[in-house]
Amino acid sequence: MQQSALSSVDAIEAERFRQFIMGVTDYAIYMLSPEGVVVTWNAGAQRFKGYDPEEIIGRHFSMFYTEEDRAAGRPARALELARTTGKFEDEGWRVRKDGSRFWASVVLDPIVDPDGELLGFAKITRDITERRVAAEELERAREALFQSQKLEAIGKLTGGIAHDFNNLLSVIMNGLELLRMTKDPAMVAKSVDTMARAAQRGALLTQQLLAFARQQPLRQEAHDVTRVIRSFEAVLRRALPDDMHLYFQIQADLPQAMIDPTQFESALLNLVVNARDAMGDDGEVLIDLDAVTLSEHEVERLPAGRYIRVMVKDNGEGMTPETMARAVEPFFTTKDVGKGTGLGLSQVYGMMQQCEGALTLDSRVGKGTTVSLYFPAVQKQAGDDQQEVALGFEKVLLVDDQPDVLDTAISLFSHLGYEVLSADNGAQALEMLHQHPDISILFSDVVMPGISGVELGKAARREFPALKIVLASGYVKATLRDQMPDIGNFEMIAKPYRLSDLIRTLKAL
Q1: What positions does the domain Response regulatory occupy (predicted)?
Q2: Which residues are within 8 A (CB) of 198 and not within 5 positions of it... i.e. 6 or more apart?
Q3: Which stretches does DSSP call E strand in 52-135?
Q4: pLDDT grade for 9, boundaries at 50, 70 and 90
Q5: Is the residue at 12 inside a domain?
Q6: Domain-terminating residue out of 330, 347, 378
Q7: To 10 degrees, what angle do helices 129-181 and 185-212 make?
Q8: Residues 350 and 254 both lie in one domain
Q9: Distance (Å, rounded) from C-alpha 251 to C-alpha 419?
Q10: How far is the C-alpha of 408 from the C-alpha of 411, rounded, in Å?
């Protein structure tokens, strides 16, 4: 009697639970057979899927999937994963009775008896289309804000860039006019030096912009930092007015460091200019170069080891803690409008991250600022003291579709002692390689009509495996990599290149 009463209570509770499930309108809650056939249907499923119970019970649940999902086998995979893992959760497009789609959140649970035999599946579906639409609108708003910020940044940069380049072009154009008018050797030498400095400043500005755009590849190689700084000393001194003084304190016999010389020079120039702007009418800048051995976590992000440390110290106005906390943010600047973009220190910080080094700041108001750069040091290898490789005495093929650029390259290589052949397109270059199998070096522009420099390099390497290949481009590797994946297989030099850059690249061959 008591057992019968308990059974009756259980039946009543089960019926109440069934009625509760059937009455839920915000969720589609229904049962499937082990094969995926619908066996129950609640009010929620009827509300946002559009089917009455008699229309859907007995049909396979795959009818709710899109045609592309059915073709991909997603319904069967959902059942299999639920059966084997104990639960299946997913989001995706589902189809209503009227053919419209909604974005669904789905949970599928297997139902088993006490012996573990599969009885079917409990399926819960929620219409989250509104949430998805809201997320997409938020993402579009974020993208629009990002584009707006980029346009604002470009607007901030445009005026300064145009001004700087117009100044540089004025120097070069006026210098050329002077060369045409005068035969005075002193005036000629002075004009040439002035134009060379203007061209170098233009190249540095372009490199800074490319680095900011994250399109300037970092070419880390072992270099003598002392030699790099000394060769760049004249430019650094010209960055300071006459009433300011630049001093160097360089430790002797330093190991080499892993740096990109061009990026390093640009970073050093940025730091000297920042120091200049912090000191008013006069002051002193000290560049201190030494080797340090760091313990673990002595400098944030750096593992223990040997580093080359470059410190740029000024005795300017210094920074408050609040300014220091934001100093490396892009576009953050304390300079007056028109006197700074806020890119300098952020560019240096980005370079240090790429080269697995670190940048630290030490500053106090009224006491000046010290910026320290830590570069991984290189252990000296056997043979490092051997005599440098001599250049020249080889035959080189130069390829460029721009006549002026090609003429300049011919002059540079001839000056270095090479026997020079030239071509203005890839097809002509391949023909000349066959005519002159003793060519040792192929030096080609990357972007050319017809056969590109990369295609030329690949064809030449297949036919002449011993040929040394250098590709030059005003674009950079990061910009070209998507269109020309094989560009990383060749030695590269960035335009505009100086004679010293060319010598360094040729020695690397």
Answers
A1: 395-509
A2: 167, 168, 169, 171, 172, 175
A3: 88-95, 101-112, 118-127
A4: very low
A5: yes
A6: 378
A7: 180
A8: yes
A9: 41
A10: 5
What does the block give as tokens for 195? 């134009």
Q: CA distances (Å), 101 to each of 140, 149, 348, in order?
A: 21, 35, 50
Question: Are 200 and 226 within one domain?
Answer: no
What secondary structure letter does DSSP report for 26?
Answer: S
Residues 302 and 426 in one domain: no
Q: Which range among 159-173, 245-259, 310-324 shows the weakest confidence by mean pLDDT?
A: 159-173
Q: What is the pLDDT of residues 25-44, one digit of tens each?
A: 678 888 899 999 998 888 87
- Specify the 3-state DSSP secondary structure of 377: strand
Q: Is 74 exposed, middle or buried (0-12, 13-18, 19+ CB in 10 A)?
A: middle
Q: For residues 38 and 55, is the Cβ–Cβ distance under 8 A? A: no
In-domain check, residue 133: no
Checking DSSP bridges between strand 395-399 and strand 419-423, what pairing results, if any? parallel
> And the tokens for 252?
């002797």
Q: Quick one: tokens of 354?
A: 């790429």
d(Cα 175, Cα 30) in Å, to the nearest integer? Answer: 85
* Rounded distance between C-alpha atoms, residue 367 and residue 315, angstroms: 6
Q: Would you say residue 340 lies in a domain?
A: yes
Q: Which residue has the tokens 């006197």?
A: 339
CA distances from 96 to 31, 45, 67, 233, 482 (A): 18, 10, 13, 73, 41
Measured distance CA(351)–CA(310) in Å, rounded: 14
Looking at the fold, whether 444 and 485 belong to one and the same domain comes out as yes
The residue type of 232 is F
Range with lowest mean pLDDT among 241-245, 362-366, 463-467, 480-484: 480-484
Is 167 found in the same domain as 91?
Answer: no
User: What is the number of domains present in the chain?
Assistant: 4
Residues 6+ apart with CB under 8 A from 37: 58, 59, 60, 61
Residue 445 sits in which domain range?
Answer: 395-508
> How do residues 152-211 score in pLDDT, each as one tens digit?
555 555 555 666 777 778 888 888 887 888 888 888 888 888 888 888 777 766 765 555
Distance CA 183, CA 172 (A): 18
Residue that finishes a domain, picked among 169, 191, 212: 212
